[in-house]
Every structure is written in structure tokens, then in C-alpha cells.
Amino acid sequence: MEAGKKVSMLVYATSEERERIKAAAAKMNLSVSKFMLECVMEQVASIEELMQRTGEHD
Description:
Layout: H1 15-27, H2 32-54
Helix pairs in contact: 1-2
């Protein structure tokens, strides 16, 4: 992604959700950005695995 074109997913979260995300990231000693990336990549891996098992392609 080009510099200056980052979009924070936190703008879509409620204040309560932001606090929960920040607390969870802190418990794992991760920045909020790194925490969210890790969570997203877990979901991507799960979807890819499901697609492989069911024989689906992109």
C-alpha cells in the first residue's frame, strides 16, 4: 500500500469496540495495527483452507 493511503479499520469500530481491540492487542503485546493484521490473516487462512477442502477456486 502506498504511503499516505492507509485506512484505519478503527474508524468503522464503535468506541466500545475500539477499547476492546486496544485491550486485546495490549494483552498480546502487539500494536493495534499488528493485532488487526494477525486477526485478518487468521480469517484469510481459514477461508483458504475451507476453499481447498471444498475444491473451490478463486
